[in-house]
Amino acid sequence: MSKKYGVYICTGCGIGDVLDMEALVDVPDEEGINCTTHPFLCSKEGVAQIQKDVNDGKVNAMVIGACSRRVNFDLFKFDGCIVERVNLREGVVWPHSREKYPALTEEQKDDEEHFDRIQMKAEDYIKMGMIRVEKVKLPEPYKTETFSRKILVLGGGITGISAALDAAKAGFEVTIVEKQSKLGGYAAQMRSQMPVAEPFEQLITPVIEEKIAELQEYPNITVKTSTEVARIAGQPGEFTVTFKKPGEKIPFDVPFPLPPEMLLDEKGNELDAEAQHAKYLEYNKGRLDILKLDPDGELYGAVILAAGWRPDKLKGDTYAHLGIDLPDVITNDEFEKIAAKGKIVRPSDGKEAKEVVFIQSPGKDEDDADFPYCGSVTSQVALKQAKYVRNDYEDGKAYIIYQHMRTPGLQENFYKSIQQDNGIFMTKGAVTEVSNNGDSLMVGAKNTLLGQDLNIKADLVVLANGMVPVTVDDPVVNLAYRQGPGFRDNDIFGGYADSNYICFPYETQRTGVYAAGAIRRSMTIEESIEDATGAALKAIQCIESANRGVAVHPRSGDMTFPEFFFQRCTQCKRCTVECPFGALDDDEKGTPKANPTRCRRCGTCMGACPERIISFADYTIDSIGSQIKAISVPSEDDYDEPPFRILALVCENDAYPALDMVGMNRIDYSPDVRVIPVRCLGSVNSIWIKDALAQGMDGVILIGCKHGDNYQCHFVKGSELAEVRVNKMGDALKSLALEEERVRFAEIAIDEYDKLPSLLSDFVEEIEALGPNPFKGF
Question: Which part of the chain is the 4Fe-4S ferredoxin-type domain (predicted)?
Fold first, then answer.
């Protein structure tokens, strides 16, 4: 498109009071670009003024200098136009007060001893916005060659059935795949279900049979029992799925992921991405055809992963004191199956079990952790199963010994009703021993609420066994992706299939595959049904977004996707290996192949590429690099004591919103910092840092999402990869005779805005202590 440029600057919200608007307007005027000011640009009149210029053909690439791009984003959208929002309000005038940084007098403006830090920042931001609209282009949507609106549901339990029903009611075709010979899953083996309605005091019959019967009413639901998914290839909108019978071997069986020991070198250190990829290829030598589509496979638009859970296996010395080898010490799973058959009896001899002890924590000491994979569900199960004992036997007694009792929401009412039952005794305590006592068992506990040790005679002891997601043992989805068949980094979540608990429930690391139910976390039947609805809606959203050629999440509506300049590709495979979402496949030579509807548009591949051949239509190496070069770097040729220049590359998901909140709260930080938001720190290419320092900037700080055990990075690995890359820049800085301290990586959560001002100011002070960049002025 032939670009026609325009700049619009708002003078409202204090912008015109703080800044020298005449000088600011001169910035685009110097480039021959028309600049218009307005006292209230987001008003109906202000937007209409811009729209008139668009309609008259005067402008199609514009810079709007006003509030943050996170504000009024729906107003400043003009069809067929490139729009760059320059943050003059939250980014310039609100966090930098004139009391601390006074404006220059007319006499001072021509004096080399004086400069206006706030004005300089605003002018830099206008120049950066102008160069960006010059360097980017309007994106065009990507459309798949084939397309399907069908949804595949893996798992025929309560979650899978509920998800299928919700999707079918919305008008979508659904296929349920179940390994077993019939539907129902664990819910079909249960005796009763927790109450779901007022007064939340009575157990109810499991709803699974009603759900199975309801399936028959929907002709757009297909059920495949005694079937498993052998392979899923392709991308959202055109997943090609191969089915097989359990245990069957077929040519399209997926390659094997690397064993953990092969990810380490001889010294036990983790191999870098390139070395891991080389080992992966060797490990699966001769099986690269797995990336090809199955010509006989079925086409689906999205996948819902509802494969469920299995009971944990309690073994080892950790549980020896609980008598796990005794025949009448069982798990809650085993207890439920006994209860489903009739009255509660002992497995050892079939006699009535009228006195039952439910142990919720294995620890001998107070406040020890619960059993693995336990939580509120196992607390509720203990209450439910204690009720079984009381319902089966008028003189039955149930004892619940816990460290933590969790009954969320209105299930608290059920807990209170259990408290009123004189036949059910509950106490916090630590179980010290479970032993034989003639024809019964004896349970010892200490640190109880009674203030004394207890010895309880029992016919049966029930341990609160956890719900382990099946992905711990089985990748389930069997994805034909270069990076392996299942979900990576499952150890972070204990095997649960989730990419980000906090921000993106249901979404997994594989775009188009959505997790629901106990595969995501321990859940009750009621919670699983609700969770299924969420996953079904996500799958529908994914299909509709793929059909429009836009990203589904987290950059919803983004039409861009990675584009490659293959003439310079060295087949180094870094982009393929480092992509957090498996959006890139490659051939035997290592040439990347994009799957745009899989792509989350994070730009991690762009940051990984040493040849800088990967870009997005409106987000390129050149567009960010040119913004960096547009920043003025005053030297001693300009001022007697020139101000320092600090570049901050900040994650647009956490750090940039936090910076906006800093401005909204009028918290001051150094105006010598120039902020450029990036899609993800994983997209930051090291050339940007080198260019900034080479042109004389005094320091560079990267601020991204937190990563680690409580993973919050929107793009899973972006923040972590950025930190690794920054740490590797030490040698490059030394070769330029620059201190390593001039480049810093920092983490921030979106709600930690109050930490940002000191974080930035402290870094500026450290840079000032180092002194000016020796490249300044060259």
Answer: 560-589, 590-619
Count of H-run helices and E-run strands, the chain: 19, 30
pTM: 0.89
SS3 of 440, please?
strand
Strands 221-224 and 174-177: parallel
Token pair of 744 as six digits: 């810093």
Determine contact, residues 737/699, Cβ cutoff 8 Å.
no
- Coil vs helix vs strand at 231: strand
Q: How many Cα atoms within 13 Å fall on the side-chain side of residue 35?
A: 21
Q: How far apart are CA 675 and CA 125, in angstroms?
A: 9
**Token pair listed for 484:** 């392996």
Please give the full DSSP string across 281-297, using - where no structure is assigned. Answer: HHHTTT-GGGGS--TTP
CA 447 vs CA 320, 382, 424, 451, 521: distances in Å: 20, 20, 19, 6, 31
Q: Is 316 left (phi over 0), alpha (psi -120 to 50) or beta?
A: left
β-pair partners for 443: 434, 456
In sequence order, which residues have a C-beta less than 8 Å from that of residue 390 and are 6 or more positions away?
A: 396, 398, 421, 423, 424
Distance of CA 95 to the CA centre of its chain: 30
pLDDT at 502: 67
Phi/psi at 484 (nearest 5 deg)?
115, 165
709 pLDDT higher than 70 = no
> Which amino acid is residue 434, in one-letter code?
V
Which amino acid type is present at position 376? S
Six-digit token string for 575: 């982009």
For 507, list phi and psi in degrees, rounded to 5.
Answer: -80, 135
The rounded distance, in Å, linking the Cα atoms of 304 and 159 is 10
CA distance to 80, 384, 407, 416, per residue, from 202 (Å):
60, 9, 15, 12
| Rounded Cα gap, residues 322 and 317, in angstroms | 10
Provide the 10 A C-beta neighbour count for residue 714.
26
User: How does the average pLDDT of the chain come out, rounded?
Assistant: 90
Query: Other CB atoms closer than 10 Å to residue 82's CB: what's the count?
Result: 22
What's the maximum distance between 2 C-alpha atoms anywhere in the chain?
101
Through-space distance between the first and last CA atoms of the chain, rounded to whole angstroms: 36
Query: How far is 591 from 551, CA to CA, in rounded Å?
Result: 24
Q: Six-digit token pair at 42?
A: 């987001």
Q: What is the DSSP letter of 550?
A: -
For residue 183, pLDDT beyond 70: yes
The DSSP bridge partners found for residue 3 are: none
* DSSP per-residue codes, 242-283: EEE-TT---TTPPPPPPPGGGGB-TTSPBPPHHHHHHHHHHH
Distance (Å, rounded) from C-alpha 44 to C-alpha 47?
Answer: 5
> What domains can be seen in the chain, in order of their start residue?
1-138 (3.40.50), 151-252+294-310+470-548 (3.50.50.60), 254-290 (no CATH), 318-465 (3.50.50.60), 563-615 (3.30.70.20), 619-778 (3.40.50)
pLDDT digits (tens, 9 = 90+) for 422-462: 999 999 999 999 999 889 999 999 989 999 999 999 999 99
Whole-angstrom distance, CA of residue 158 vs CA of residue 209:
9
> CA nearest 729: which of 691, 776, 697?
691
- Residue where the block lists tokens 């107070």: 366
Beta strands, E only, 546-645: 563-564, 584-586, 592-594, 614-615
Which two tokens mark 616? 């997005």
Q: Which two tokens stand for residue 631?
A: 């920043």
